[in-house]
Write a structure and sequence with these properties.
5 helices, 2 domains, 192 residues, Alpha-Beta Plaits, alpha+beta
Length: 192
């Protein structure tokens, strides 16, 4: 304290300024610079997180759209009606389509199932209509094929042979439909 009393007012001002500048420098270097850098890092991280958030939000919207489409698709897949086996329902639908087009009912071969890769829980149910298949005029056969497609049936193979008489032809084909595996298993499981 004696030192301060021996100083002139000018020396005291210089000392005060030096102490203030020194403390300011120490404060800046020790605290403020770190805080400013941390603020910059946090701002960058926040900007990155915000862009990631926006991307995830878009992905979530896309996921919700895919979920809706899946539910619509799942609802489209016919289920066994009145406790009937899926292949029986499928055969009846094909016979009903033939009847509606005044086409003689075809003989349906042995059904086959084929697992769908990438779609667990679903299989193709394939019903072959072997040769001689369906005999009818070509326009009716064309309309039948259009009806099958509009009902969501898939034509796995198709052969049309002209009979040489008027507009008639014979058609043999394999028709497929997507079914739920649990329905096939439930309808084909032995009863206890």
């Amino acid at each position: 304290m004696q030192l301060l009393k021996n100083m002139t007012p000018r020396e005291r001002v210089i000392l005060a300024i030096t102490v203030c500048v020194g403390l300011g420098t120490l404060l800046y270097l020790g605290l403020l610079e770190g805080m400013i850098q941390k603020y910059g890092e946090i701002s960058e991280n926040l900007a990155t997180a915000h862009s990631l958030y926006e991307a995830q939000k878009e992905l979530l919207k896309e996921g919700e759209r895919v979920d809706r489409e899946y539910e619509e698709f799942y609802a489209m897949i016919p289920s066994g009606r009145e406790g009937k086996r899926p292949e029986r329902v499928f055969t009846e639908e094909i016979q009903n389509l033939c009847s509606s087009r005044e086409i003689p009912l075809p003989v349906v071969g042995q059904k086959k199932t084929l697992k769908i890769d990438g779609a667990p829980g679903f299989s193709y149910l394939i019903l072959p209509i072997p040769s001689p298949g369906i005999s009818a005029p070509l326009p009716r056969l064309y309309d039948l094929l259009a009806d099958l497609q509009s009902r969501g049936f898939m034509i796995r193979s198709l052969q049309i042979d002209a009979t040489g008489q008027d507009e008639s032809a014979q058609m043999s084909l394999d028709v497929a439909q997507i079914v739920r595996d649990e329905e096939i298993e439930a309808k084909t499981a032995p009863k206890k």
